Amino acid sequence: MSASYPSACVSTNPWLNHSATIARITQETPGVATYDLVIDDESVSVSFHFAPGQFNMIYLPGVGEVAISISGAASSGPSIIHTIREAGNVTRALAELKEGDSVGLRGPFGSSWPIEQCVGKDIILVAGGIGLAPLRPVVYEVLANREQYGNVSLLIGARTAAGLLYGDELETWNQSIDVQRTVDRSTSEWTGHVGVVTVLLERLPIAKPKNTVLMTCGPEVMMWYSIRTALSRGMTDESVWLSLERNMNCAIGMCGHCQLGPQFVCKDGPVFRYDQVASIMKVAGL
Amino acid sequence: MPEDCSILEQLQHSTLGAVLDDGHLAELAQIVVPVHEPNGAILFKEGSPANALWVVCSGSIALDIQVAGRGAVRVLTLGPRDMLGWSALVGDGSMTTTSTVIEDAHLLRLPAQQLKELCVADHTLGYAIMGNVARSLANRLRGTRLQLLDLFAETEPTHNQSGEFSS
Amino acid sequence: MTQPDSTSSTVAPNEEAQFLPTDRLQLLIDALIADDRVVIGPTIEQQAIVYEEISSVDDLPRGWTDVQSPGNYRLEKRDDDTYFGYVVGPHSWKQFLFPPLTVVATADRESADTKWSMQAPQEDPLRYAFLGVRACELAAIAVQDRVFLQGPYVDPVYRARRDAAFIVAVNCTQAASTCFCTSMNTGPKCKSGFDLALTEIDGGFLIECGSEAGAVILKSLETDDAGSRHHDLAENAQQQAVEQISKTLDTGGIRDLLLGNLEHPQWEEVANRCLSCTNCTMVCPTCFCSTVTDVADLSGDHVDRKRQWDSCFNIDFSYMNGGVVRNNVKSRYRQWLTHKLASWHDQFGESGCVGCGRCLTWCPPGIDLTEEVAAIRLHDLRVPPEGSSS
Questions:
Q1: Measured in whole angstroms, how far is the alpha carbon of residue C117 from the centre of its chain?
Q2: Do C147 and A254 touch (CB under 8 A)?
Q3: How far apart are CA C371 and CA A171, in angstroms?
Q4: Chain C residue closest in CA terms to A1
Q5: Which chain B residues touch A30 with a CB distance below 8 Å?
Q6: Do C317 and A8 touch (CB under 8 A)?
């Protein structure tokens, strides 16, 4: 069972990047910033639609491309929002750019979170570190159509308090959904939960496990244990979804880099239903 | 769990009392002392004699370890259903952490000596209790390992001594 | 699923097979060149039969054959002067449709202060004619068509070359010890996917027509209608190829067999022999892994996005987040073989292997994938050992 392609990339030539301007940069945490990108060509900009969970390739000519999940609301107008952490050559070069500078963009690519399947159900989102970024569009969708969903919990884990993202949106979110946060390592100013995010999941009341959907994004080990916990609480293989990551080069399933077993993470994923990848996730070096 | 839930119900829902039969729960309930501690109260100090087990019914409890040069380092927070004080049953006799209430808490306190006597007198109860303690510690170990793996390390560059970022 | 909009399609039933005498083979090459094509055909270079641009029948490896076995390739003189009396060498046709190095996009700016303009490369598509395509190679081209043309995205580089390519297939009249096309249902007979197909027989060539474009070229040659004698000779010659095939790959349930044995000790065993040298992926006509990197010129104002062949055997092919996922030869060999013979079924609905045997021949330690699969099948870990209680 492969994912549908909710919206294809905006070019007929899948290698072609579109020029986009950095409309806004918001520093989130050390090494992590959010970039609002606007595609320069208005006809292309207007036709860009994405589904939560999808990603774009962001291009810096002369440096290279990097796959970045889209972390804004699906209806955010011309701005396409990406929260990016500095990790390699491209993202470090990106961190040198300013508002008004240009980058290339192509996409959107990949599979999306199964939000439409959550109507009438309870939702649990488990986010670790930068993994909150690809889940934020789900939060926005829930907030925009709150009455369509049941109990919604967002469990966030980070290394320290300094790594918790989107802190200023928390109050708004808390009004409609249950948000809990925890850190691996405490610092003197943190008075909240200490411990891994899976512990929050263990403690979370799950009233109707057969009518609950879990979506998780973060380090693979964290997702693995979150899923094990969800299954032990009565949820099923088919109601748990995760976002995987592999070396992405072409984003269109032609370079071979991103394969995990038979799955191309760029086009069969990055969002997978757990049963699609359960047997291959723990095979060392697959 | 609201404080008007009976002790039996609270025990039953906790990790200490999970899957215990009614008879065993009743035995435990005999020795339970319900306790209410406000925000800021210290349940026990690191290094003090381990003489009780607790079950958290509501609120939040923080566990800290004193590290020379770093002061009190918070290693874990506990919530409803969790047990604390495992050192009283399977430790070396002293508490390994300082336990502070960080959100008004209702707890059930079980004196260690009486609990041990119950387990010796009734081995099936003892087996069930030890199983629950082991499972709770296994969970705790899994969580600790995940904390140890420092999975988010690359997300947040750590400052080195000169204040520069390194990751 | 779109079919390639190419000149090669299924056999045009109206065309009668033709006979072209040997001394007129040059006319075929001339006709292709006259059709504004670059003719690629077999020729001997550095003691191997490779595919290069040719213009004359004298370029062809007339009177030569290849002797192959795992880790071995030699050319030997034949005792006749057949033009196509060999099988396959280290080259395949993929280097022309899916070039080893190509520009997929460009970026230009007037100066450091102006915006980049990103474009697709402007190039006149090369009009190739491939002379001497074997049945296994036709199958391989079809496999790569699936990858580059028939998924959710189309590669314009492959499409342009593929649409313009004219294919003259050649039916094999012999087999190497490394061939196993019969096991993969890809040969040795050429059934479709060509514009013209030749079978070399006594005195000349039986030519079958496979498309409208093929018919056009065929008409321009001086040929005779093939008689029953020609057909019989051709059939006998083709049958010789079938009979010479000695190697088999048992493909029964192979997808589940391999994906169900990911922890089999055989992977460790083959890793002791495999050098992770990437030869197999280079010579394999279906391997398609690549890497795109940015290459700027000295001014820094012009950048090419260059796509280059890569290989899952390269150590950093699976590099991610500060580490390599497939960090040893075992996991890389397993990736290659399970992709080729198993995962390909999930991804493209067919096997990725066409049984050409190149990976056996060009593997320095002579690893034979048919034997590796057989070893796993022999001790299939999905099945409990006999005698164990269930």
A1: 36
A2: yes
A3: 63
A4: C346
A5: 156-157, 165
A6: no
Going residue by residue through chain C, which has 390 residues, state the pLDDT in tens, using 9 for 90 and above.
333 444 444 454 446 899 999 999 999 999 999 999 999 999 999 999 999 999 999 999 999 999 999 999 999 999 999 999 999 999 999 999 999 999 999 999 998 888 899 999 987 878 999 999 999 999 999 999 999 999 999 999 999 999 999 999 999 999 999 999 999 999 999 999 999 999 999 999 999 999 999 999 999 998 999 999 999 999 999 999 999 999 999 999 999 999 999 999 999 999 999 999 999 999 999 999 999 999 999 999 999 999 999 999 999 999 987 789 999 999 999 999 999 999 999 999 999 999 999 999 999 999 999 999 999 999 999 987 665 554
DSSP string, C40-98: EEEEEETTEEEEEE--SGGGS-TTEEEEEETTEEEEEE-SS--SS-----S--THHHHS
Q: List, in order, residues 6 or more apart from A165 with CB less than 8 Å away.
A: A28, A29, A32, A83, A130, A132, A133, A156, A158
DSSP state of C339: I
- What residue spans define the domains of chain C? 13-102+115-244, 254-287+311-378
C337 reaches A (C-beta below 8 A): no
Measure C157 CA to nearest chain A CA, in Å: 10
C331 touches chain A (CB under 8 A): yes
Of A195, A203, A222, which has the smallest distance from its Cβ to B81's Cβ?
Answer: A203
**Torsion, Cα of C324, C329, C333, C335 (10° steps):** -20
pTM for this predicted structure: 0.90
Chain C: residue whose CA lies nearest to A6: C152
The answer to whether C152 contacts chain A (CB < 8 Å) is: yes
Q: Provide the shortest C-alpha distance from residue B32 to chain A (in Å).
A: 23
Question: Which residues are bridge partners to B110 per DSSP?
Answer: B53
For chain A, what percentages of helix, strand and coil (3-state, to nearest 5) are there?
30, 30, 40
Is the CB of residue A221 less than 8 Å away from at least one CB of chain C? Answer: no
Q: Is-contact C53 C129, C-beta < 8 A? A: no
DSSP string, A17-38: -EEEEEEEEEEEETTEEEEEEE
Contact residues on chain A for B164, CB-CB shorter than 8 A:
none
Chains touching C by CB (3 or more pairs below 8 Å): A
Q: How many CA atoms lie within 13 A of B167 on its CB side?
A: 18
Alpha carbons C88 and C68: distance in angstroms, whole number: 9
Cα C129 to Cα A253: distance, rounded to the nearest angstrom: 28
- Tokens 């109860």, located at residue: B125
Hey, what are A33's tokens? Answer: 């910033």
CB contact under 8 A, A250 and C292: yes
Which residues in chain C (286-315) have CB-CB distances under 8 A to chain A? 288-294, 296, 300, 303, 305, 307, 310, 312
Annotate A63-126 with DSSP letters as a single string. Answer: TEEEEEE--S-TT-TTEEEEEEE--SHHHHHHTT--TT-EEEEEEEES----GGGGTTSEEEEE
- Show which of residues 198-257 on chain C sit within 8 Å of chain A, judged by CB atoms: none
Task: Tell me the CATH number for domain B7-152.
Answer: 2.60.120.10
Give domain limits for chain B: 7-152
Q: Is the Cβ of A249 closer than 8 Å to some Cβ of chain C?
A: yes
**Is C203 in contact with C21 (CB distance < 8 Å)?**
yes
Smallest CA–CA separation between A163 and chain B, in Å? 6
A100 touches chain C (CB under 8 A): no
Helix H or strand E encompassing C363: none
